[in-house]
Amino acid sequence: MLRSLISRLHSTIMAILRLALPPIPSSRGSLRTRLAEINDEVDALQSKLRLLSAERRRVLQHLDAIVYPVLTLPPEITTEIFSHYVDNPHMGLARNPGSGPLVLASVCRSWRDLCLSLKFLWASLRIYLHHDRSWAWGIPNQSSSLRSYLQRAGNHVLDLQLFLPNSTSTRPDLTRNADPMMSTLCEHSSRWRSFSVWGNQWLPSIQVQGNLASLEKLAVQACSPDSRWITQFQEAPRLLEVELHGVTRQWISLPWIQLTHLTFASASVSNLFEVIHSTPNPEVLVVFMLRYDHWDPPQINDATLHHLHTLKLDHVDGVLHLHHRDDAVIFDHLTLPALKNIHLTTWSDDDILRFHRLSTRSSFSLQSIRLVEMTPKAATACLRSLSSVQEVEILPRLGSSNQALKLDVLIDLFRTDPEFVPSLRRLTLREWRTPVSPSLLAEIFAARWSQDESELATKKLVSFRLFFAPSVMSVDLLEELRDQLRPWSDAGLEIVIDPATNSSSVPFCSGTSIYDFSSAWNIELRAATDLHGKSNSS
Predict the structure, then answer these.
(1) Mean of the pLDDT values across residues 499-517?
(2) Which own/partner contact pairs does 322-326 have at CB distance under 8 Å and 24+ positions apart?
(3) Which residues, by range, are in coiled-coil regions (predicted)?
């Protein structure tokens, strides 16, 4: 009975299946024929799909060329643009994305592929460390990100800066935060081209790996007397340029004899001369004097720097006017026979006497001088004795209307006294805060510039640059400048008149902004006045 039941059930199921399924050809030949037909249809569809895909790519390319024309640039041009965009990329400033390769790589796939292939884009980085706990918790990830970033540079030499927090209240935490990052940087020390570590009261452990064969520039700042002795940079055969801020000769060991560029910031002239005596061959010396209440009378030996051609004596920003110090005493102990270029800041009238004695003792022949924040009297006294100087740049100090009047007298000397800087070729007036007389400038040009070959020996001016505070220039004055100075520019004298680079971009008169002026009045007058005229007519 069970067997007959199963038999009937099987018959029923087969009948149902025969009704649900299409008929199957019984011959092998029919099956092969159908299979060939299917294969032909698949090939035809795939061929059509390839044609459609190719057409789709062409349409997208044409569309991108219209909507995103920058994507059609050749890789060589895009690479050049990227090289100008990437500027001091950084890690650790969350609110400021900066101008680094990560920003470019986030735009689109083609830019990302190009950025990842350009090793030099990843070869510079500024790293900022913080002392708050929330940032410290991310240190392992930060170290990993830093390692990945530097690996993108391949074998390219590296320019690195590490900025440490100022607070010392949590120094153990700071050390724990800084050491992993420094360790990651040191993994690539053989490829350092420039390396800077900017601290306040302490420095992390610097354990370089291998030699420093690529290191050319080093900067170290640390102001604590218990900073650890720095010996890691003693063997650096290509090191030529060093900046030391608060780091004395007793704290650091360097290949002093090979250094050609030295920047030194200190509150002690004695410390400065210890470094100078250790560095016999500098060509460029930049000195920043910190101004503090204490003043140690320097017990120092005189120094002669036979190769020094450029000297800059300045003060650290923010402490310029806190206390008076006799910084010009430095000149009492130097002899500089090869000096060509000098930069002096905030010197008094009496300090100029020391400069004159240095000039007499050294018998140098200066070519350029930059006077910053000096009184008109001091600037005049300094310039009057310089018969060989060809380039003069003045950034004045204006504290009263009387000083402004004296400044006009100083500028007028270029017109009235041919023996005042007689070799002058380039004159730059920067951050000028007093109105400029167009007629005075024209008379200065007449006295100092000529196309006549017979007068070239006495009239040598080839360039005049004026960077002014916007508040002193009205539209009428600018129009007058254009009219009176156009003939000199047309005749070949280089004339540049611009707002001061650190001036505000707020409009200074109705309908005219600093940006508008800069684009229309960036004279060389030969080009800019024509441009200005065209813009007015349009």
Answers:
(1) 35
(2) 322/291, 323/291, 323/292, 323/293, 324/291, 325/289, 325/291, 325/295, 326/295
(3) 28-55
CB of 83 within 8 A of CB of 120?
Answer: yes
Q: Are 224 and 183 in contact (CB under 8 A)?
A: no
* Residues 342, 369 contacting (CB under 8 angstroms): yes
The yes-or-no verdict on residue 139 having pLDDT over 60 is no
Q: Residue 109: is it exposed, middle or buried by C-beta count within 10 angstroms (0-12/13-18/19+)?
A: exposed
Q: What phi and psi, each to the nearest 5 degrees, are found at residue 123?
A: -95, 0
Q: Decide: residue 59, CB within 10 A, 0-12 exposed, 13-18 middle, 19+ buried.
A: exposed
512 contacts 477 by C-beta, under 8 angstroms? no
What pTM value is reported for the model? 0.74
Are 256 and 264 spatial neighbours (Cβ–Cβ below 8 Å)? no
Task: Indicate the pLDDT class of residue 426, thresholds 50, 70 and 90.
Answer: very high
Structure token pair of residue 416: 């009235």
Structure token digits, residue 448: 């100092």
State the DSSP code for 200.
S
Q: Which pLDDT score, from 0 to 100, does residue 507 have?
A: 25
Q: Do the beta carbons of residue 212 and residue 233 sit within 8 Å?
A: yes
Which one, of 125, 186, 112, lies nearest residue 161 by Cα? 125
- Could you tell me if 357 and 343 are in contact, meaning their C-beta atoms sit under 8 angstroms apart? no
Number of CB atoms found within 10 A of residue 32's CB: 10
CB 530 within 8 A of CB 521: no
For the chain, percent helix, then strand, then coil, each to nearest 5?
A: 45, 20, 40
- pLDDT at position 477 is 81
| CA gap 124, 147 in Å, rounded | 13
Query: Is the alpha carbon torsion for 182, 187, 190, 194 positive or negative?
Result: negative
> Residue 217 — φ and ψ, nearest 5°?
-140, 135
Distance CA 340, CA 359 (A): 11
Is the CB of residue 334 less than 8 Å from the CB of residue 303?
A: yes
Beta strands in 186-257 (DSSP E): 192-198, 217-221, 241-245
CA 176 to chain centre: 30
**Residue for token pair 């995103």:** 68
**Which tokens belong to 430?**
């920067």
What 3-state class would DSSP assign to 261?
strand
Which of residues 508 and 328 earns the better pLDDT score?
328
Instruction: List beta partners, residue 427.
Output: 392, 464
The token pair at 336 is: 């500089």
What letter represents residue 131's amino acid? H
**pLDDT > 70: percent of the chain:** 73
Closest CA relative to residue 469, chosen from 496, 435, 499: 499
For 325-331, what is the mean pLDDT?
70
| 521 token code pair | 């009045």
Furthest-apart CA atoms within the chain: distance in Å = 138
Which residue bears the tokens 């795939």? 46
